[in-house]
Amino acid sequence: MALIGKAGRREEVVAACEGARALGIHPGMAATHARALVSDLDFRPAEPEADAALLDRLALFAVRRWSPIAAVTPADGLWIDLAGCAHLHGGEERFCRRLIAFCRRAGFTARVAVADTAGAAHALARFGRSELTRVEPGATASAISPLPIVALRLAPSAISAAKRFGFETIADLLPVARGPLARRLGLPAITRLDQALGAVAEPITPREDAEVPIVERRLLEPIGTAEAIEQVMGDLLNDLAQVLEARGLGARALRLTAVRVDGTEQVVGVGTSRPTREVSHLLRLLKLRIERIDPGMGLEQFWLVAPHTEPLDAVDLGAVLAGETLVRDPARLVDVIAGRIGGYAVYRLAPVESHVPERAVTRSDPVEMPGSWPAWKRPIRLFARPEPLARVMALMPDQPPRRFEWRGKTYKIVAGDGPERVHGEWWRRDAEVWAVRDYYRVEDDAGGRYWVFRRGDGFEEDTGDLSWWMHGVFG
After folding, report:
1. For residue 257, with 0-12 CB atoms within 10 Å meaning exposed, 13-18 middle and 19 or more buried, which class applies?
2. Are the beta carbons of 140 and 133 closer than 8 angstroms?
3. Does pTM top 0.70 for this prediction?
4. SS3 label, residue 175
5. End-to-end CA distance of the chain
């Protein structure tokens, strides 16, 4: 199959399948030549408008599912900005693998490239050697050097001029001075090269989602002081609160974009533990980000977007107003603390239904109340991984140790309690089918209290190797 489209006054092949390419059909070939070469080839008219509409739908899908900044790169690709959101998808490498698998399920072949600049990613995705290329930070120049100059998205006239002067790859352009190179290829070609190398900014204009609440402010004069930025933030939040209220939504995340007079963007974001549209609280969170905004020569345009929203209905406060109950909502405090030290540093510990100590605790939402804790006595500090003990003296099979060495120091035990037997979780893996741990609470002659265990029950070899381990400290 081959798609035929018009290029000026003539018809030419704009796309061909692998079978057609094997027969000598390639994009750019005249349609009459292709028909004469392979008479029974399936020729169909190209539909660039339908292709553009499909790419636009994919960009909108990317904005809603993967990154708030995604845009179409005509005529066959997408730009996705992973800055700040790659960790949500398991890292860049894992996200790219999932993206390729998604395209395969949708019936597309895809090539993915990750680089510091949009121009480098565009070039490597189309002219790289593999379907997945990931460039380490700072290695952009060496990564794009072997690529042909057509990878820089140059105009046809610039490509023809480059061929006349003997420039074949990007590496041929790098050592040439910018002045002579601009006279030979034109200033737009130099701009494309600098954009790929990161010397000139190339901001991505994201695909706007009509369903995402967004408000905008354009200023008559540029601003640069913290007080002026705070005033604009308050105005934007007031406008956004009206939009959210009309839709019955509350914001869980906000992204503020400030455009400087030189065209570059400053982007900051905040998140909330629960949906809210309270202006004072959201303004307090955004004010914590003002110091991260570099105004440069001045800021002249602002956007405030709520990429993550949730329904926010009326709350029944009858019992609270009547004094029958006292409700303390930690959401505001959590939002402020998370805004200062990061959202992943604020969490609650919640119990998990597991007898194995290191599996019995997990992190949970800081604003949600955890379930009830079991009555088992556990140390204040539980090690993530047990540490081995050496030269242990203990009376087998069920007496606590009388002496052991830990971290190069000898401990003499004067009191002990146990054992508390914990069996392995046989449904997880075969090694835990017969595994046994006997835990003891012991106290040394200096008053230190420790939680130690022995692997094995002292009778059956399959239950453990009788080694001793330190698992926690009681305070």
Report:
1. buried
2. no
3. no
4. coil
5. 75
Element (H, E) at 283: helix 279-287
Query: What is the spatial distance between Cα 196 and Cα 207, in angstroms, rounded to a whole number?
Result: 22
- Residue 263 in contact with residue 297, Cβ under 8 Å? no
Place of tokens 């597991």: 354
Q: Which residue has the tokens 């790419």?
A: 55
In order along its 475 residues, the chain shows pLDDT tens digits of 999 998 878 889 998 988 999 989 988 889 888 888 888 888 899 998 999 999 999 998 998 888 888 999 988 899 999 887 887 788 888 999 999 999 999 888 899 999 999 999 999 999 988 889 999 988 999 999 999 999 999 998 999 999 888 899 999 998 988 888 888 899 999 999 999 998 888 888 888 877 789 999 999 999 999 999 999 999 999 999 999 999 999 998 899 999 999 888 898 988 888 889 999 999 999 999 999 999 989 999 999 999 888 888 776 666 556 665 555 667 878 888 887 777 778 888 888 888 888 888 888 877 777 777 777 788 888 898 899 999 999 998 889 999 999 999 999 999 999 899 999 888 888 888 899 999 999 999 999 999 999 999 888 888 999 999 999 999 7
